[in-house]
Amino acid sequence: MNQQPSDVEKQMRKTGLKIAFCMALLMSFGLSLTGNLLAERPPEMPLAPIIMGFLACFAISFVVSFGIGIIVPIPKVNAALARKFKLQPGAPKTHFVESVVSNLIYTPLITTVMVLFVYFAMMPEGHKPPFLPMFIHSQIVCFIVAQVLILIFEPIIVKRLLPKKQ
């Protein structure tokens, strides 16, 4: 029995991909910028490698973030959260809980990939700080930054991209 998705399902899937794309752009830009601002560099370092590092981190984190957005059904996760915790749609508590869970799904993986990339591919051997403190610090700071970004921008993106009721 092969059922074709309805027009509504196709539209919702398309909208979900648009939301995932926009959130991936936002999160990748925000977290790459955060990582770049956290980086300790020699003062004489030219601007070109800094910009190239930012662009490389942005590209990698975008691929990871969009990949998560395609694989993880966030609306289904949010629906399960609502059932489990008896959350009311549109309530501030609901948005906060959903944003924390979304942040827990996305940010640790994105940050881990970016830190590993920077540490092993971009840092010269003589200028590498100890890995674990750098990793933990990056996770904490990026989690906080991502939480703020999700809390502020996710409702705006969803509101703009969801089809208008007629």
Q: Could you tell me the radius of gyration in angstroms? A: 18 Å
Number of strands: 0
Low-pLDDT stretches are none
Distance between the termini: 33 Å
- Number of self-contained structural domains: 1
**Roughly what fraction of the amino acids lie in strands?**
under 5%
Shape type: elongated
Portion of residues within helices: over 70%
The overall average pLDDT, rounded, is 90
Label the structural class: mainly alpha
Seen as an oligomer or otherwise, the chain set is: single chain
Tell me the layout of helices and strands.
Blueprint: H1 7-38, H2 47-71, H3 74-85, H4 92-122, H5 131-161
Helix pairs in contact: 1-2, 1-4, 1-5, 2-4, 3-4, 4-5
Write structural notes for this entry.
The chain is mainly alpha-helical and 166 residues long. The chain has one domain (15-34, 49-159). It is built from five helices and no strands. It has helices at 7-38, 47-71, 74-85, 92-122, 131-161. The longest helix is centred in the first third of the chain and has 32 residues, at 7-38. The mean pLDDT is 90.
Short synopsis of the structure:
The chain has 166 residues and is an all-alpha fold. It has five helices and no strands.
Index terms:
single chain, 166 residues, mainly alpha, 5 helices
